[in-house]
Design goal:
This protein has about 180 residues and is of the alpha/beta class. The chain has three helices and seven strands, in the order αβββββαβαβ. Helix 3 links the parallel strand 6 and strand 7.
Length: about 180
């Protein structure tokens, strides 16, 4: 008896649905990871410095401190430019309008010093009682808004000094062009 091979009426092809699902899952994963990685970087309008150096290999342990103007506070120095960016027209000297933030948490000076001491302890030289200076090697980046009067940035420098942190970088941007 001769057995006939059954012919398929239609070529089944390749099912792409699972591959599309995997691609969307990967896309969502990378979007979330990118968001978490940028969590310490807030919108700060950095001052322009002609001698600014590109930070192409930042220290992975670097702590970022942001000094930003509270956009919720009424201030006659704030204006929105033609690109929708909020800018300070003149320096705002009202202390309650300025916030110091670490890891998206607004802190006062006492809490800033406490946090810096805790963060500094992760990489601190031996204390003076053990023959060292107790100085922290933890790097810190201070990103102060371009419109911030120096007295607000100086308080952050002072807090770093009290926490015995000496590796301090200042955020700036190069001029356009």
């Amino acid at each position: 008896m001769k057995i006939k091979k059954a012919k398929m009426a239609e070529d089944p092809g390749f099912n792409m649905t699972p591959m599309i699902d995997v691609v969307f899952q990967l896309l969502i994963f990378f979007m979330l990871v990118t968001e978490v990685a940028a969590m310490e970087i807030e919108r700060v309008y950095l001052p322009i410095a002609t001698e600014a150096v590109e930070d192409d290999q930042p220290d992975k342990d670097r702590l970022i401190i942001n000094v930003v103007h509270d956009e919720d506070e009424e201030c006659n120095q704030l204006k929105t430019n033609d690109r929708g960016r909020i800018e300070l027209t003149n320096p705002c000297y009202i202390e309650k309008h300025w916030m110091v933030r670490i890891k998206r948490e607004t802190v006062n000076m006492e809490k800033l010093i406490q946090k810096l001491k805790i963060e500094g302890d992760t990489d601190r030289d031996p204390p003076p009682s053990s023959g060292g200076w107790g100085i922290s090697n933890r790097p810190v980046m201070i990103r102060g808004d371009a419109g911030a009067p120096y007295k607000f940035i100086e308080k952050v420098f002072s807090a770093c000094g009290r926490a015995k942190i000496w590796k301090i970088e200042i955020g700036a941007t190069k001029p356009a062009g």
